[in-house]
Amino acid sequence: MSRLGIPQLALIALVGVSGSGKSTFAARHFRATEVVSSDHCRGLVSDDPNDQSATKDAIDVLHYIAGKRLAAGRLTVVDATNVQREGRAQLVALAREHDVLPVAIVLDMPEGLCLRRNAERPDRDFGAHVLRRQRADLHKSLRHLEKEGFRRVHVLRSPEEVAETVLVREPLLNDRRADTGPFDVIGDVHGCRAELEQLLAELGYLVERDAEGRPVGAAHPRGRRALFVGDLVDRGPDTPGVLRLVMGMVAAGTAMCVCGNHEQKLVRALRGKKVTVAHGLAESLAQLSAESAEFRKLAEQFCYDLVSHYVLDGGKLVVAHAGLPERFQGRASGRVRSFALYGESTGETDEYGLPVRYPWANDYRGAAAVVYGHTPVLDAEWVNNTICLDTGCVFGGRLTALRYPEGELVSVAAQQVWCEPVRPLQPVNPVRPDDELNLTDVLGKRVVETAEHGRITVRAENAAAALEVMSRFAIEPGSLLYLPPTMAPTATSQRADVLEHPEEAFAGYLAAGVREVICEEKHMGSRAVLLVRRDGGAVHTRTGRAFFDQRLTDQVLARLQAAISAAGLWSELATDWLLLDAELLPWSAKAEPLIREQYAAVGAAASAALPAALDMLRAAADRGVDVTDLLQRNESRVNNADAFRAAYRRYCWPTDGLRGMRVAPFQVLASEGRTYHDRPHSWHLDLLNRLSTADPEFVATTDNLLVDTGNPDSVAAGVRWWSELTEDGGEGMVVKPMANLVRGKRGVVQPGVKVRGREYLRIIYGPDYTEPANLDRLRKRNLGTKRSLALREYMLGIEGLRRLTSGEPLWRVHECVFAVLALESEPVDPRL
Amino acid sequence: MTLTTTARPATDLGFLLHKHPQRARAFEVSAGTAHVFYPRADEQECTVALLLEVDPIALGERVSDRPYAASSLLAVALGSVFRTAMNGQCEQRPELAETAIPLRVHIPAVGGAQLVHRLFEPLGWQVAATPLPLDTEFEQWGDSPYVDLRLTGELRVADALSHLYVLLPVLDGSKHYWVDHTEVDKLLRVGAGWLAAHPERELISRRYLAHQSGFVRTALARLAESDEVAPQEWDTPEEDPAKPVPLARSRRQAVLEVLRETGAKRVVELGCGPGALLRDLVRDKQFTELLGVDVSVRALQLARERLPEQVELRQSALTYRDSSLTGYDAAVLMEVIEHVDEERLPALERSVFGSARPATVVVTTPNQEYNARYETLVTGRFRHADHRFEWTRAQFAHWADSVAAQYGYTVSYLPVGEPDPVLGPPTQLAVFTRQEGR
């Protein structure tokens, strides 16, 4: 039995004349879906697998399918004769385009056997001359396959050999997904042996030394392993010492190392290739010349064997010297290696004459954390799930390690400036939040994956509207961490005189299995999200606009900061910032233009028109004209219009700066490192009441009542409470599951439903909505879309907060915030 | 509304209108029910009242003034209920229908406070319009858009009705419901004899015929509404290319000349609006590839209708990095930066100068100093409601110089429009040129 190794991810070209047994071979060694055959593709385009005139189209289809598979990272076998160089060149190009290895398996069978096989198949009627030509082509090709770019070539020359062959799928050299660590990833060492020893000691490694006292290995008592990002060599004082130590660790299995550009060049120099001796190579060569030839040979081999990058820990960690975009991770090609070692340059040079590196990390959207070095930076900082550990030790900076999976950074200072940098060390990038956001993060149809609620789809036209609002009106994304979800009203009441009533709300939660609910007074103001940092923050509306100008914002924040300090919440929640969901009063503080233009204007017209009509109707009635019904209706409408004016007036009062303004926070959304949707609402209200205690003038409390939905007395008390709230025009209440986020039999239950007062709803449904005939028609309102929307927005909000507090990159948080805004533009009856 | 005559016998009004003064009658019309009755009908004076009961539920999803203020709905009802009278036909009193008689019209709430005098006075009416306050409890809110309107004149009843029929929709500030193309004919027919001579005939025709297919709630409007903002506040289209403004033209000309000089072939306009500049550029063969981007979907739709296919258009936002904007020879930001909050400008700078990085960037923006020359502009106000700032020449230069230094560009300045010797030009223009080797 002979075992042939093939890479797990490869494009495998079967090469052999017609009748050489390629399809049989493919069927035996590969899954049917892994094989794309030219015969099959001919059939697809022409209904005849042997129609040679369809070959060109068939090959196009074949390449298309193979391309899709390779893009998805799937091994693909091309079953075609592939005896001609041009055809194979296309396959090699296809493999390179997808950064996978091209492999050739040649079936070079005896001519007679092939002839016989073809003769046995009635559909293969071509003559012996065709076969002879194919054979000639094949033999002409055999010697050149490797030169053509095939990275492995296996030739099988007899049916016996074919029968004995077993294919073994081998992981790529970079594939260490099974290795879960823990690791200590170490940045560019550049010959700084002393600092490396110090760092290893700091990390808890015990260094072994040879007879001369030179470090030749290091091991961690708890089995941690070092993972070097490359550039061990050049520039520094002791490249051989570093190599000796790292080579020892790698040989002993206590370290791994990827190749840096300096190792690559050192190998070429040691092998006598012509290289420009610069960037510290001279030091390495001089230092190595003092070593034994044997050591030099070992070092050369070590550097030569280094792979371009590693994919580790189930694909969650990628280590590459210069970083690696997602599309190259776990792939193998010249350009993958080139990127991993050198990165990409924009083609421009900076004021020091150094190439400007393409900021790939800004665009990085991959799930794997990418740890790299190569570009000396002042501090190691995460940018979109990537981190550069080259903190310029050799330039007098520090040598830095990242403990994985802990995420902790450990570093030691350079003992001295070993090499003057051409350019002073700089921060990773002058990256500000916006830099990290790409248009492609938000535009077009999007599907947001949420941890709690599966996939939520945003339609392209809604994203387009959200982009406009986000771009023209919203505050900067680094401070826009949450947008409040919409809330559905309770199921429509069938009572004669109202549209909404608490009974349906309580019954609804009882049916969903929720006994304990909290009724919270609905403050009739405007929704505000408060981001309060110890220093600074933001106050924004439900579409992300700044609530106030900067001066007033600062005043609001100062009051809140003081209240939070006085209540001791900074330390209690161990945080430097708090994100609060709140209502800002009065309604007119923000909505006055709308109140004037929409509500007051209607009231003005009604107050003029209806009494005039009443006068005319009374005059007609006095004349004996029968206008009784009309007169009655009109009298009722006059009252309705008065009630309408009274309804909106309740929520308007003048403010002057902060004077007259109040804020009613009702939920703690997040603080450093944690979210609070798992805390009962009573916890939230108790905590936030303390802010009101600290500043009762500015911070309002939220009245509330607990109701047991299964207890008729408790339900009756809830109804009474609502009636009292709303009788003189109060907006109403919100009923929420006490426990906050609750899952029922059919998934997450509504996080809250609003039960609005009869008089308040005049503002929404118009002055005359309470006329029985109108109420009857309005009762047919459909709540399904609104409910679904409320739930989706709620879950997106929670997902965004989860991402925020678990330290995910800004674009991941922004994706959720943006999605909520986009969903808000879906067509739903705005009165709900 | 009511219509009163003091012509004797006043009750003849009943004949003219074909509605009996002793009876109240109801007519179903599209918006609801129109009621006709006479509050007074005697020898000396006769008043007919037309009361339109609008069905508020059928109006849709927002609280509306339609059930209260006279609007196009009332005009439709009037045209339907008094059609014969409006056509001047009266079999029983034919000579009366041909006679101008003393008439009074009272409409207790109607929009268009600034227009009523201009519209009705040329037709022979005496106009008394009393503004209605928005809310007597909030006097600081001022007047509502409505007036209590009283018209007095000596006219034929048919003329009075036709005036109201045509002019009520004109006064109606909201979008109204004419969608039918026969409306042009109807306008000409009903307005025959007086519209052609009316000094405001253009305004009347335009507003009467302002075909609006109902009110479409766009996705953007829904967002505005969810944030308690009037949708029109977010919907601030830029200048209409169909209505040329001299300054806009010289601005486009100046940009065009700069672009020609640079030899740019592939040009992207960032914030292209409805595409006025692109329309100029596409006529010049020098520009082989043109792309316009804007954040407004509506602006792009307008631009698409006006521009040939070879101009590519797509949505983008300058506060996000858009890698598809790289590789152009030149980028134009014509009257764009002043629409971006100053705090968000660094994001725009990075997108344009850091990421897209064309060899040339042309930026125009108003010169705030020049605002003093605009007599109608209140001091301290901006030229456009959506402007977030307007800069003096020094402020603009300060910004442009620091952007240029930060991103490796050089910058030069050009005036646009007729400059004032002291205040400078109305528009300022900066040309940024990328420094090579940097």
UniProtKB/TrEMBL annotation, chain A:
Keyword check for Transferase: yes
Residue ranges occupied by any Calcineurin-like phosphoesterase domain in the UniProt entry: 182-377
Source organism superkingdom: Bacteria
Keywords, ordered alphabetically: Kinase, Transferase
Transmembrane regions: none
Residue ranges constituting the Polynucleotide kinase-phosphatase ligase domain according to the UniProt record: 465-827
GO molecular function, one term: kinase activity
SUPFAM superfamilies xref list: DNA ligase/mRNA capping enzyme, catalytic domain (SSF56091), Metallo-dependent phosphatases (SSF56300), P-loop containing nucleoside triphosphate hydrolases (SSF52540)
Entry-linked InterPro entries: Ap4A_hydrolase, Calcineurin-like_PHP, Metallo-depent_PP-like, MPP_PrpE-like, P-loop_NTPase, PNKP_bac, PNKP_ligase_dom
Protein name: Polynucleotide kinase-phosphatase
